Amino acid sequence: MATHSSRRSFLKQAGVMSAAAAASSALIPTPGALAAPAAAALPAAPGGAPKKAVLIGMLPKELPYQERFALAREVGFEGMEVNTIESPAEAEAIAKAAQAAKLPIHSVMNSEHWRSPLSSADAAVVDKSVKGMLTSIANAKLLGADTVLLVPAVVDPKTSYQDAWTRSHKVITERLLPEAEKQGIVIGIEEVWNKFLLSPLEMNAYVDSFKSKYVQAYFDVGNIVFYAYPQDWIRTLGPRIRKVHLKDFKLVQNKGTFSWVNIGEGNIDWPEVRKALHDIGYDGFMTTEIRGGDKAYLTDVVARLDRFLAGQPPVTPAPPSA
Which helix (H) or strand (E) is 202 found in, with range? Predict the structure, then answer.
């Protein structure tokens, strides 16, 4: 099973390893961060009640799967996302843990697409990527998930933007979509630092070009903060959004530094993001994809999500000392 660090291996390509190393410490809740005052929830809207989910890698790894799922449910999460599972025995253990805890697995995060991009010119690399996605689709079917996250292509010095589009589109259409449609599993296309699909208009065009309800968007709120506004992407993607990832991003422009931070401690305007989700009537899962921790830490993450869902900032700074 891939880890959260493998999920961010693209940072090596971007030449920002030092920033990635600093991110883990930045994700620890800021001392003195206080809960925002309670406030009335947003007005009800059809499909306007997103559900809280957690990435399995955020849970204490020393615990057996059944205890991890029970902990996630206890602190208030309503769903789980897992990574690609190669071992059939491990997949069965995870399925049983989810059932015992009555905590559904809603999505599988494919693990092979960074190591082996679908956009590669090397047929062997593409074959490996396809195998990983087919395993992820099989995982989703077994676990009762309805979506598999896919980073469709990576633009690099050897892969042009046009090649990334054309190659990935061909492979998805011919080798992945037929199996996804057969199994009833949505391929969720995610935007991330892969130098591809750099605007919501491009994402719309790419998703729509497959002409299938089994290709939709998996929107990550934090991934586009470097160059765009998540609330704008949400409204532009609209009903194409199948799933949402939540994390925060802090950019200090005058110092030229940036880092992944805990929810509510970065540059994202969370009340505006909530309004945007409300506007499109999103009622799917929102999965936290941040640093993990113990029960107290996870309880705090859920509290931040609850305040976000109520239309409030997840945290507010502590008042200055006298």
Answer: helix 200-209
Residue 256 φ then ψ, to 5°: 70, 30
For the stretch 109-143, pLDDT in tens is 999 998 999 999 999 999 999 999 999 999 999 99
Q: Strands 285-288, 241-246: parallel, antiparallel or unpaired by DSSP? A: parallel
Q: Report in angstroms the alpha-carbon separations of 118 from 134, 149, 193, 199, 204.
A: 13, 14, 16, 20, 19
CA separation for the pair 69, 89 (Å, rounded):
17
Predicted confidence (pLDDT) per residue in 258-290, tens digit: 788 999 999 999 999 999 999 999 999 999 999
Q: Which residues pair with 249 in a beta bridge?
A: 260
Q: Which residues pair with 287 in a beta bridge?
A: 53, 245
Place of tokens 């949402």: 244
Helical (H) or strand (E) element with 218: strand 215-220
What is the pTM assigned to this prediction? 0.85
CA of residue 231 relative to chain centroid, distance: 16
Give the CA dihedral 284, 300, 291, 257, nearest 10 degrees. Answer: 100
